[in-house]
Amino acid sequence: MPEKTIADAPEHSRYELKLDGEIVGIADYKQDGKVRSFTHTGVEPAHRGEGLAGELIDFALREAQEAGLEVLPYCSYVRDHIAQHPEYLELVPAESRGSFGLGG
Q: Which of 50, 71, 51 lies closest to 60 in space, CA to CA?
């Protein structure tokens, strides 16, 4: 089993998922004060279908929650993940949810 780590890499404005020290997944974001806009999520083709993107986004959204940040899910993967995990919906400002197709 490879060693898996997920961490924020603020110097690159992204979260990185590493297997045995090699970056295989990223979640790019832009930070503006207390608002974190997720712009892109990607996993290396050889590792797609392993659930790594979901783990990466869960980690990133939990960190945003713990830090009291608002999230704008411009990335379709992040938007779909929030739609499937309503515990994260509160991170998206109520007035912005409709523009992301998240209701309410």
A: 71
30, 40 in Cβ contact below 8 A?
no
C-alpha 1/C-alpha 57 separation (Å) is 21
The neighbour count for residue 46, using CB atoms within 10 Å, is 8
Q: φ and ψ at 50, to 5 degrees?
A: -100, 0
> pTM of the predicted model, to two decimals?
0.95
**Tokens 């974001």 belong to residue:** 29
60 within 8 A of 42, measured Cβ to Cβ: no
- CATH code reported for the domain at 4-100: 3.40.630.30
Report residue 31 CA to chain centroid gap: 13
Q: In a 10 Å sphere around its CB, with 0-12 CB exposed, 13-18 middle and 19+ buried, how is residue 17 labelled?
A: buried
Question: pLDDT, tens digit, for every residue of 72-97?
Answer: 999 999 999 999 999 999 999 999 99
